[in-house]
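All the exercises in this workshop are built on plain-text protein records. A record pairs a protein's sequence with a compact description of its fold. The structure tokens are whole numbers drawn from a learned vocabulary of backbone shapes. Once this layout is familiar, the rest of the handout is easier to follow. An example says more than a description, so a record of this kind follows.
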Amino acid sequence: MITRRYLLKLCAGAGATLLFKKLPAFAQSSSMLLREIPSSGAMLPAVGLGTARTFNVGTDEDVLSPLREVMRLFIEMGGTLIDTAPAYGSSEEVTGGLIRDLDVLDDLFLATKVSTRGRDQAIEQMRNSMRLLGSESLELMQIHNVQRYDSDDVATLLAILREWKAAGRLRYIGITTSSLRAHERVSQLLQAETLDFVQVNYSIGTRQAEERLLPLAADRGVAVIVNRPYERARLFRAVGERAVPDWAADFDCDSWGQFFLKYILSNPAVTCVIPATTKPHHLQDNMGAGYGRLPDGAARDRMVEFFDAIPGT
């Protein structure tokens, strides 16, 4: 979600100069790609930030320092959506601490998850998430890995999320999965329930979501967050030392990270992709995927053909 404060900070003197220097040449005359959230019409920057594993670091300042720079650059380069979860160890606490350090709460679209059974336990967990993140309301609460719950559990959790949304404590509600085996269950819930967001695993190497889930989300007016865009670095290992093909420059791509992210973002059903990193220079590269041109249909086919021809992919 784009806030007035965010735009003012982005455009203000020194901050704008820093941003300008950190973007590739093609991005210096453009802005971060925005995608519409269908249920509200609000616009969301298309590259977000995941925290699974990467923000589960505790309180060691030597580790927190580069993460603080990651978050600072993320906002400076146009990002707003940060996705976390109680199941990610200390990630919620670390995220909240960095937000306070940088005083950027109003600049962010905070998404977290509920991952427990029972009404009382779920409410307690959600309250704790808000406490750790330092906010009395959140943009998005999601049922984490929804396939783990039976129909009664899902009904209980969705009822709580809808109550909190009606009370103004949540702006959006959704469900998540990071498993191919759960795509059918997620599709069933998309058809049966009124949701704002669905989060799903999708990449150039794991394209099954294109067959049913992404078209269904588009038909139902549900925003899509994509997790595991690099498949925990498997895609980078697959390409090895190969150079990015020259023709990737046709859609303003100069790295493998951007190649993988731009493939995802070129699917119009995708609202936001959430790569995770602990390294500021990787953050800058990831954010570059949200600038410049995206591959068209012919380029997407060429990307798939190129990737699938690599042995072992």
Summary: The chain has one domain: 4-308.
